[in-house]
Structure formats: structure tokens, C-alpha cells
Write a structure and sequence with these properties.
201 residues, alpha/beta, Helicase, Ruva Protein, domain 3, Dna Topoisomerase Vi A Subunit, Chain: A, domain 2, 2 domains, 4-stranded parallel beta sheet, two-stranded antiparallel ribbon, 7 helices, 41% helix
């Protein structure tokens, strides 16, 4: 049995930090120690920021984004193209696309992908609300920006089936060679997808 070397408050901080994606027990201990060493500069302001987030952050009832208002700032932005909706698995994917700044469209966050083995079915995702958004009219194109995984593709096919007959153009992100990528370092699946999605030069 290991001896306790820190108080219960510090132990609780470490345990909570270890639940953050990307942080295991060892990384959580390092992060906790760093925060404690920088109490005035980091731990105090972080505590206030987390309290503010707890009180003000909402999930957008329209698209599933997280923001301090509902509907979110993307959904209420009049400069956005209302006729185009980009469908993503998670809010992190939405943020990544926004950083790229490639399109000025609206979004819809599914909240995951279909995965029968993990017990995730259509009712566990924001698919019904997506179908309702499209059925209300005004949407010309739906861009399926889901990951190129088995679950992502299964989800994309399911959504396509659900939207059949609603008269919306459904596209997906191109798969293949990344910008700056070298062929020798790519896997066979990526190369195969790139060849199938080739374009005129």
C-alpha cells in the first residue's frame, strides 16, 4: 500500500486533472505541482475562469456549439451563409474548421458518431435536430465533415439516408494527400482515397 505524500485537497486536484483528455496520472501530478507553485499567477485566475465558465457557458440549442449565449454567436451572425451547414462530430472539430477560416457557413455538432459496440445509437446524437433543420427549408448544401473512420463513415451514411428526399445537396470533405505531405510517409488507405478523389490539374 502506497503512503499518502500530499493532502486530500492536492490529491483531489490531481485526480480531477487526470480526467482531462491527454493528461494521465503522471502529467496530472506535474500540472498540479506547476499550478500550486504558481498560485498567484495561475491557480487563482484559473479558478476564477473556471467558475465563470461554469456559470455562463451554454450549449447552443440550434447547432450544439458551446458559447456564453444561446443561440451561439455563429448561429446569430448575419454574415454567415445560412444555406450551408457543416456537420461535425464534436465542438473541437468546429473550432478547428473555424481556425482554418475556409468557409463562412453555419454548423451542426453531432456530439459523437454512431458506434453500436459502444452503445451509441442515433438517439444519442444530434441527428434528429439536424434533419429538422434541413426539413424547415433554406439549406442548400450539407457538408459532412466527419472523421474518416469506420464510425464516421457509418454516421455519414446514416445521415444521408435520413435526409433522402429533402432536396439538399450532400457533400463530404476530400480525403487524401495533406498539403505538404510526402507520398512515402502516407498509409495505403490515404493514398487510395487520394487517387479516387483526384482532380484535373
Amino acid at each position: 500500500m502506497s503512503k499518502r505524500i500530499v493532502g486530500p485537497e492536492i490529491e483531489r486536484l490531481i485526480q480531477l486533472l487526470a480526467k482531462v483528455p491527454g493528461l494521465g496520472p503522471r502529467s496530472a501530478r506535474r500540472a498540479a505541482l506547476h499550478l500550486i507553485k504558481k498560485k498567484e499567477q495561475l491557480l487563482g485566475p484559473l479558478t476564477v475562469a473556471m467558475g465563470d465558465a461554469l456559470d455562463t457557458v451554454r450549449v447552443c440549442s440550434t447547432c450544439g456549439n458551446v458559447d456564453t449565449s444561446d443561440p451561439c454567436t455563429i448561429c446569430t451572425d448575419p454574415r454567415r451563409d445560412e444555406a450551408t451547414i457543416i456537420v461535425v462530430e464534436d465542438v473541437a472539430d468546429l473550432w478547428a474548421l473555424e481556425r482554418a477560416g475556409a468557409m463562412n457557413a453555419r454548423y451542426h455538432v453531432l456530439g459523437g458518431t454512431l458506434s453500436p459496440l459502444d452503445g451509441v445509437g442515433p438517439d444519442d446524437l444530434n441527428i434528429r435536430s439536424l434533419v429538422d433543420r434541413v426539413a424547415r427549408g433554406g439549406v442548400n448544401e450539407l457538408i459532412l465533415a466527419v472523421n474518416a473512420t469506420v464510425e464516421g463513415q457509418t454516421t455519414a451514411h446514416y445521415i444521408t439516408d435520413q435526409l433522402d428526399g429533402l432536396g439538399v445537396k450532400i457533400t463530404r470533405l476530400a480525403h487524401g494527400v495533406p498539403v505538404g505531405g510526402e507520398l512515402d510517409y502516407l498509409d495505403e488507405g490515404t493514398l487510395s482515397a487520394a487517387l479516387k478523389a483526384r482532380t484535373v490539374f
